[in-house]
């Protein structure tokens, strides 16, 4: 075994990343990727992110197997599997940069719409809606089904091509699995399948080295601390709080994916446009808030 200070730095990052994983069932690799890949390089950082998750994923999947939506997990695997193979074939004909910009934009839009619904409306505008009440659940229309399954199939394709399909698969699972625990455990079970597949591919490509093994030994105890704290935290929050965390995390993933791939000559225009839209949105929210206050006074 060898030791480098970078092993400890990346290991400490796993405390935060695995707290997120223990709470939501996804996001650990994306949260820690800037530090992991920055210090290790992608050749070691990518397999590191894959392998460090596997023991914890299997622990939770086995321990909480009764709280897995097996029906939805079967759908995810069945619809993603063909897409993964299609994506692998399309790898050389699709620009990774274009794919990441497109997926990042889509994820941002989905996250922003739901942040407005679960954060802005109840916490800023004081428009309270009990999303767990039966009479407030949105009907499962044909349009919603097409959107849900479309995200799942597209997620399989882009995951096969560039291993970035996770956010789209998450969108499907959020729509299909309403219970917070079942959502987390279903996502965890999916990563059990995908991470083992990715690890096997990485092993075949010669990614497993003594340096990687040593870094993983340092990370595992630290990752365990974050993971079990995240599991405990999930028990203390309700579904709306859970969804707020999940959609904020999705927004972070989408913004990160977009900004890291948008061409530098377009970045300034994108930032200016986004700032104008954001200011307009803030203006609308403040106007709506004042209107709501007036209605309450006059009631």
From TrEMBL:
**Does the keyword Nucleus feature in the UniProt annotation?**
no
Please state where this protein is localized: Cell membrane
Sequence intervals crossing the membrane: 7-33, 39-61, 151-174, 208-230, 242-260, 266-286
Membrane topology for this entry? Multi-pass membrane protein
Which coarse location class describes where this protein primarily resides?
membrane
Pfam families this protein is in?
Answer: TauE
Q: Which keywords has UniProt assigned to this entry?
A: Cell membrane, Membrane, Transmembrane, Transmembrane helix, Transport
Q: Does the keyword Cell membrane apply?
A: yes
InterPro entries reported for this sequence: TM_pro_TauE-like, TSUP
One GO cellular component assignment for this chain's record is: plasma membrane
Among PANTHER family, the record links this protein to: MEMBRANE TRANSPORTER PROTEIN (PTHR30269:SF37), TRANSMEMBRANE PROTEIN YFCA (PTHR30269)
Which family is this sequence assigned to?
Answer: Belongs to the 4-toluene sulfonate uptake permease (TSUP) (TC 2.A.102) family.
Name it. Probable membrane transporter protein
């Amino acid at each position: 075994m060898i030791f480098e200070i970078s092993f400890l730095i990346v290991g400490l990052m796993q405390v935060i990343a695995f707290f997120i994983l223990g709470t939501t069932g996804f996001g650990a690799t994306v949260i820690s990727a800037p530090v992991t890949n920055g210090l290790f390089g992608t050749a070691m950082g990518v397999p590191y992110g894959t392998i460090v998750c596997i023991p914890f994923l299997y622990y939770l999947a086995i321990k909480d197997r009764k709280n897995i939506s097996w029906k939805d997990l079967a759908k995810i695997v069945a619809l993603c599997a063909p897409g993964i193979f299609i994506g692998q074939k399309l790898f050389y004909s699709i620009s990774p940069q274009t794919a990441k910009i497109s997926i990042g934009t889509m994820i941002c839009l989905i996250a922003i719409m739901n942040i407005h619904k679960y954060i802005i409306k109840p916490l800023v505008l004081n428009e309270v809606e009990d999303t767990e009440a039966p009479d407030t659940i949105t009907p499962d229309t044909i349009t919603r089904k097409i959107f849900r399954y479309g995200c799942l199939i597209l997620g399989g394709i882009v995951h096969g091509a560039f291993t970035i399909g996770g956010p789209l698969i998450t969108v499907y699972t959020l729509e299909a699995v309403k219970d917070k625990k079942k959502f987390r455990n279903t996502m965890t079970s999916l990563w059990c399948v995908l991470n083992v597949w990715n690890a096997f591919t990485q092993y075949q490509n010669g990614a497993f080295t003594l340096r990687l093994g040593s870094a993983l030994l340092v990370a595992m105890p630290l990752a365990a601390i974050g993971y079990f704290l995240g599991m405990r935290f999930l028990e203390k929050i309700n579904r709306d709080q859970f969804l707020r965390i999940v959609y904020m995390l999705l927004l972070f993933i989408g913004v990160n994916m977009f900004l890291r791939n948008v061409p530098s000559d377009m970045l300034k225009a994108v930032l200016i446009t986004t700032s104008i839209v954001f200011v307009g949105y803030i203006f609308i929210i403040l106007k709506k808030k004042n209107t709501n206050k007036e209605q309450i006074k006059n009631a």
